[in-house]
Amino acid sequence: MFTGIIKKVGVIHSWNAKSRILGIKSEFDSLILGESISCSGVCLTVSSFEKDIFFCNLSSETVSKTNFKLKKEGAKLNLEKSLKIGEDLSGHLVFGHVDGISTLNDIKNDKDSWILNFSVPSDLSKYLTNKCSICIDGISLTVNKVNRENFDISIVPFTWENTNLKYSAVGDKFNIEIDMLARYVFKALNK
Prior knowledge:
By secondary structure, the chain is mainly beta. It has helices spanning 60-65, 122-125, 157-161, 180-189, and strands at residues 8-16, 21-25, 36-39, 42-50, 53-57, 76-81, 100-110, 113-119, 133-136, 139-146, 150-155, 173-178.
């Protein structure tokens, strides 16, 4: 489990789609074999490491459901080690289980912040409401405004400078995870 508060921005060092082995260059120290790391919102297991690169095996399910199938060497990834009992939550509860992929439709500068508009798959839009939490590429964010097929979020300068969002362009694809509490409430109310 994670918080959606990004600790490092890593870089894809190697990506072998055939063997489904992903190598990520990061500034993390003291990695442990078998630990979970959120890599742009995807919970991955460290299978090996050397110097400043750690490796993860991706299942075919992970590749098919995430934006990793589109990634190339050099792409920036948001990284977060798993939450430990007693640590501050800060963001919201993030599982690292990607629900879908959203496309960045627009970026607007709003004085000292940015407003980003993302598409949302129709099967996920029912879980979104104004001021709900959402996880985009591993970042815990608040939805400002929801339309039928898209939603807006505001990005403050700290988040912009310390995540992969500052490298983004219109048309880029992002992993999204719906807030699990919203999913449970939706299901309970529909019974």
